[in-house]
Amino acid sequence: MSTIKAVADLAGVSVGTVSHVMTGSVPVSEPLRTRVLAAIRELDYHPNHIARSLKTSRTRTLGIIVPDLTIPFFPQVIRGAETAAREHGYTLIAVNSDDSGPRQKELLSILRSQRAEGILLAVAAGPAPVGQITRMVQAGIPVVCVDRIPDRLVADSVSVQDSQAAQIAVEHLIEMGYRRIALAMGPLALKNERRRLLGYRRALRQAQIALERSLIWPGNLNTADVAASCLECFQHRKPDAVFATNAPTGLGVLRAFRDLKLRTPEDVGFVTFDELSVDDLFSPAVTTVVQPAFDIGFRAAEILLERIAQPELPRDPISVRLPASLRVRDTSRSRVEPCCATQN
Amino acid sequence: MSTIKAVADLAGVSVGTVSHVMTGSVPVSEPLRTRVLAAIRELDYHPNHIARSLKTSRTRTLGIIVPDLTIPFFPQVIRGAETAAREHGYTLIAVNSDDSGPRQKELLSILRSQRAEGILLAVAAGPAPVGQITRMVQAGIPVVCVDRIPDRLVADSVSVQDSQAAQIAVEHLIEMGYRRIALAMGPLALKNERRRLLGYRRALRQAQIALERSLIWPGNLNTADVAASCLECFQHRKPDAVFATNAPTGLGVLRAFRDLKLRTPEDVGFVTFDELSVDDLFSPAVTTVVQPAFDIGFRAAEILLERIAQPELPRDPISVRLPASLRVRDTSRSRVEPCCATQN
DNA sequence: TCGATAGATTGAGTCGTTTCAAGATCGGCT
DNA sequence: AGCCGATCTTGAAACGACTCAATCTATCGA
Q: What integer pLDDT is reported at residue B232 of this predicted model?
């Protein structure tokens, strides 16, 4: 791979001149400039970004760590962040923690070694690496958390208005005539989940529906386990609707419905957080709470870039909450008389 | 951010010794080693990967460029590639070309400047950057193409056995009793699409069904446009089944079915390449040709790493074709008498 | 014609690490 | 005691690009 020196020799100028042509920071006369550009083309010269970064200590690189690329939400976040990064001349590199704590630590360390100038982090399940993050921020590498907001961490974050979104979803179910609304949720250890629970309670309270603790199943994010709790709940408590606070949980619930031969919305109403996929093409189409994933990524990257641009500013953590929207489809339509006998 | 020199000073040794402790390439006595490790911890030292790369000219980094992260296929490929990379101590960085030719060129250039040691490329739509790829390979940066295989390019590639997969899918439809099988496909400019067409023709020929040209609609990969062609075709040619050769096309067809109020499989049979999503939860569940996306990524990365490990080997391009599998669900079940009157 | 000045060009030093050759230390053996 | 070899430790030279200070060139006015 050719170097700046090779270009300089071929063009018959000094390395300084070539550098000036590349960066444009210092004017270069037209004839020399032309010769340099010709030499660059001739040698297929690609400036060594590594050497450049070493000297300038600027990599113009942002990192994003997501727990699972195969959940549709995260690619959207990445695209948003990438868009913002590109507008500022930055490159975004995406890596996957596989929802593993150790791997996440390793990736943070790698990104730090690679001297990413800032990091977007959607934390993996389990305890968040608070100490590591704090050290990075102290070392001058800003970190912005997206989606999941770790407890006990003072840092910038961008996510959705969890409680409002949950409240709207549950209010919608109530309006549609459902009363015994079960809440299928993820681990209470996650702040987002607690916030969504809050919205659920608020909606019930405002509709003067008594809270029934046995209709709330906090669980893990394993789709199969969720399906099991759902089966269990339907045997004993007979809810007439389910609100799922996240996609894996929602899928688990749908799986249980299938096994129980329950139809939506005839037998049971259903709303879930997050688009499960192309929900509108299938029947019954699923009513979902849609998170503004692209915007979350975009805003998060913007905050990060701002921090990078003004590193000396005092760090009052910024916490942006974007509104979600309810996309009403079939699974939450008003209850109707079933046309033929079903178990219920 | 602390440097190796700071560590050396704190531990009271030379920078060379610290380096030896880090890399383990030269033995270091226990007492010194302990002092060095303590100093590293004390200073929260993270070796500057940039300086290291500059010196060793090894970045231990692989790049992957995909056209669209939000298509579920690609995240799977990335996970496969990442797994293989990690096994060899490499980090994979993923970037998104947004299916834009210029952006793809730019990303190739960036990855080259960043000195990625090898590149996995799922080419964007439009003409492939053959020249650029060839120059990279000549410069010693191996490139392996995944999924889409550009014409006119002599390079390693990993993708699916297109024609066999298509043939199996169409044979399945024939076996289920469908005869007028339409082929909804992407641009003929793509080699994969031509291969899938081949499989379709082979299946028809073997079943002695005459090929009807008007049942084949090559198109672009725009879901809305596909839906339009589909409407058109159903008005004039009345196929009794449709095989879609890729996911966006498949979605377009389903959208048209919805608009035409056609039910599957009662009114029309349907099989598509690629999982559309959680196809099995909805009704009717979609019969799909499942590509081994993870394996494609994994094998591609392995080939890449092999090339990197043995750069001087002559480059007979390796072309791996992995088998796809047919996941039979509802939309291709045998035709049955409709229970009530439907348009047909 | 000459000096001053603005502008273009150059070259050396630097970033943080690896690595090689050379120096230091130590124990064992004669 | 002195020497040898094995083992550990050190220092300095790279890697490739940027950048500052210094040099060079040309232009213009006196």
A: 85
